[in-house]
Amino acid sequence: MPTEVRRRAPGAPPLAVSRLRALGDRMLGALELPSAELSVLLVNDEGIQRLNREHRGRDRPTDVLSFPLDGRRSALTHARRAQRRGACPVLGDVVVSLDTAARQAAGRRRPLVEEVRFLLAHGLLHLVGYDHATPEDKREMSAMARRLVRAARL
Q: What's the whole-number average pLDDT of the chain?
């Protein structure tokens, strides 16, 4: 299966791994990468804070982190080319804090799965080369995130 989901989130709110796997697979399909491999790790705030500190130098929890295998802006194009050659491109890892996602979902008055669906889309886009460093990049990434969220509705 293209999307692998693991949970290491003691004490965090429940979320069905099978549902998240289906969301990831639908997003990969929307990106025209149905055979690409995506790894998703669900953690609690303690776990994501540790990763944020180790990899970004920020000693606080966050909602989502992405660890792309290929950090180039053209990563999506390269992944599509690899797929056409019959390869299964490995995109990287998306890490979501269920604790932070639950707080954000409550603040937005929506179910946890909807918040995680958005965070997964955001993290996946970082894996394939999108960023939000400039206003133009942010507009482009936001539009693509909306597209992925719509494509992944179950």
A: 92
